[in-house]
Structure prediction request, 379 residues.
Amino acid sequence: MSRSSFRRPLILLALVFALCLVGFAAWQYGIHSLKTQIVQSLGSRGEVREIHAGLTGVEILDLRIRSQEGGSWPGDDELRARRILIVPDFFSFMSARPSIDNIFIEGANVVLLRTKDGKVRIVPSLLDKPSEQPSAAEGVKSVEDKKDGAGGMALDIGQIIVSDGAIEFHDQSIRATPVKLRIEQIEATVGKLRLPELAGNTSLKIDAIAKSPRRNGKLAINGSFNIAAQESKLVTKLRDVDLITLQPYLIKATETGVQRGALDLDLDSSITGGKLRAPGAVTLSDLELSDGSKFMGLPRSAVIGLLKDKNGRISMKFVIEGDINDPRFSLNEHLAMRFGLSLAGELGVSLESLVKGVGHVGSDSAKGIGKSIGRLLGK
Prediction:
């Protein structure tokens, strides 16, 4: 065999080896670049115990983002996470738009705040943008950036997987004293995200436990959403959730007659062009009301009588509809109103009678339902 016959495979092998070295160098450069960006993005209130770049990606251990001192944030932290692994896409480093294959989040605890005006805030130190008035030159550049789809780091995320997560939800929009809900044991998968546009369908699957001192319920959400297009299709299921925990969303503060109870909920919601339609069904069981109280604007005796007729379980169907962009639309009010209407229907109370009767009931809940029904009837 000639010498050239041996030389050709050696040259090919050398080329393959050189390409592997270049690829490995590019991968390591991308990993360390990602690590640098993560450290910079944490800001002054972010801290981690360890962060290191490995062969598979960037691993963050014991992440903590503290809340602003002296601020109105509920608690000392905005976010905690035991471990985060970010796995970038190797080939994306060759393109102008980097992407991440997977983000694995373990043991995260996130605080969500719903303000009095109904806005939901999450990790504000990272996600809230300062509302500064730009100069004329900056304003022109901002307009051009929006035309070009800029305005933030372009990034594609293939999938986010959450295990053993928790959410603390503080709601200031219901009562003077914020309502606090806690969800634990969250196992979630979020599909493809395109930042900063948030365009395209993103799949969502969540299984979790709704915590309560009396009983722990189950929460399941499955579907997809498109934030840029204001579209979503989600199926939500609640099972055996403590009615005391959800009481602020069903009745007003003056109607505190619920002593015990459980709620099952099935909600098939869809939003198209900002228009919400959500048919659902709710079942109340193990319900116990205090003497002389009212429930959703209806007398205790009537509700207790219905429970006896239904073997301790009241099942109701309802439909929620509205424009989420309309400042007058309140999901809390519509939910309470629909529950009240459905319960009245089960009791055989006509809509017209409920409007007239509710107007004379002293409770804030009944008045709220009466006003809502009156608007529906044009009264």
In short: The chain has eight helices and 16 strands. The longest strand covers residues 155-171.
